[in-house]
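Pipeline run #58 for the internal structure catalog. This entry was flagged by the ingest filter as a single-chain record with no existing model, so it goes straight to prediction. Upstream metadata was stripped on purpose; only the residue string is passed forward. Reviewer on rotation: M.T. Logging verbosity set to normal.
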Amino acid sequence: MINSYIFERNQRTAMHTRILGISLLFFFISYVSFSQYTEMINTNRPGVSQGAFSVGTNVLQFETGLRYGTEEHRLLDTKATIFGWDYAVRYGFWREELEVSIIGDFQRNVVDDLRTTADDDDKNTFANFRSNTIGAKYLIYDPYRQMEAEGPNLYSWKANNRFQWADLIPAISVYAGLNVDIIVENPYTPESTGTLSPKFVLSTQNNWIGGFVFVTNIVVDRITTDFPSYGYIVTLTHATNDYFSIFLENQGFKSDFYADQLLRGGVAALINENLHVDLSATINFKDTPSVFYGRVGVAYRFDMHDRDEYIEEKGKAGREKRKKYREQKKEKNQRKDGFEDDGGGLLEE
């Protein structure tokens, strides 16, 4: 009886130790990811929505893709072959919350009039930039910061890995950009003459247990022109493992110049910590025109990030945390007694 009791007690102790160890490991992983910078590339591809988080300070990132497909217009009785190139250059500086970017889209259409039997020489071909925007994005609220600061439940693995109502609170960022539509007689833009106009995006992002990420964008575009545009984008991404993910996205926009509803879906693969490739397809829900095209893309970052900057509370609490962090870092790098440890012994300065 005594031996049985001791055995059961040891088993419970071992189980509690394992749970505590797992919880502490979870806390450590959360702690080291407290900044927006991530060890793996953080890209907006393969969708077109903007996530709430930046690429991280001193990170220069290029994202680009090629698309090929068709547009058929029932009323005009035309069919166009489409070739497009989209691109984004993103850079984080000054603070973890901030990134600046150049985002653009170029397209070439070869249009057939189905009411005639014209040969290839009579096809209508035109090409131009659909958009070019220079802007900046800033994270204004991050609920994960507080969750990570509080740490996990050290007594319950289940409590740390189940849905909680707090998971519905998203990270929020704002984007402000300037549309550079300076090319005259551009068939893809509403103005016949070159203009500069603002663009604003409100982005939210939820990172859910199980590898799910939900992003929403509310977009207000070209509001100072005669053809303002209003729209939304919702994107759901699921990481099936450490290297592959799938996504589904719905985009809607409306203006007096053009309105549409687009549905996208596809897959992405992580080649290494700085390189990402993707494949996707897009369709819409109308025939004036109907749209279908495939898209292949890549994202690569030049990682010059040299230190983590923790996003903490403002005011006195934030100052105290930053002071404590600097002191801990100083103690780690250099002993206070005037000696340095190179891993093999003590060396006097």
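catalog note: Residues 1-35, 339-349 have pLDDT under 50 and may be disordered.
catalog note: The chain is about 20% helix and 45% strand.
status: ready for reviewer M.T.
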